[in-house]
Amino acid sequence: MGETASRLRVAVDCMGGDRAPREVVAGALAAARALDVDLLLVGVPDAVGPLIPAEARAGAPAGLAVEVVASGPAVPEGAPPLASLRAMPDASMAVTMRQVRHGRAEAAVSAGSTGPTLLAAVRELGLIEGVRRACVGRQILGIHPETFLIDLGPTMDCEPQHLVEFAVIGTTYMRVFCGIAEPTVALLSNGREPGKGNRVVKQAADLLARSGLRFIGLLEGHHFVAGQANVVVCDGFVGNVVLKTVEGLGREIAAWIERELQDALPPGRLAEVTGRLIEWTNPIDLHGSLPLLGVRGHVVMAHGASDRHAIAAAVGQAVQAVRGRFVETLRAALADTRARLTRPVQAG
To answer: Which CATH number characterizes residue 318's domain?
Structure first.
């Protein structure tokens, strides 16, 4: 296969996000130059077109392969996802996902509202075989980047099999994105002893013990923040509460340190310490993007407040997912786990 045929193309929703379209276009172009990939910039042509410099247009000498794909505006923040997407079939996030579905792009990036973006991805791409619910996860503690929490919000009410799927997805993520060959897996619970937890956690623990994953049992919250497992699994309700608690606690402790040590440390050093603490406990808020996991395509959801640097990082994450063959690897991992769980349980 020639060099041209192997070039990767990313579709970017240029209308979603607080700083769209200017910052989104700038970040996408910067990532494309750095990573040597092509772009489909999805948005209202009159809004997106003028933001593309002449040297970046397709066909320009030594230019990037950049194409504007016409769409409507993004679904507004707070609008009901399903009703909005039905009323706006050409919403920018829907058209962006459609580029992946039709094979025009290998990955999609959007900083639009989480609900409509997630729903658009599921509707346009569907779920991988063996996945019942799309989910999101991420390393939420900068001090322990080897610990990944899943789910962070989409699936509020889970059954045991959902948690097993999340464990497989999280394990695959840590293999592809972090290079951890055999990640450890734990369930977040109210105690570490066997038998702790609610019905769903107890049944999920039994399944994970037979899953072939490196399941180490249950973890409490203080074990999670100490980084005692690579993949920590919970339902989206618990995960979102943990995420927001960690973010808020980091900001509150940083404010307390600033008050207590303002006379003991030079201003520059104090700002460095508090800034690092906030960064360690708010990585998604500050830099962030979240891969949408379980859909039949590589999709990255950037933070709504993303600037050009955060958009560039989101495009980079999408490119890493494609080049690491995340979806294909996950499909194989799910099939292996299903096969293990269908085997008869041996006594003793």
So the answer is: 3.40.718.10
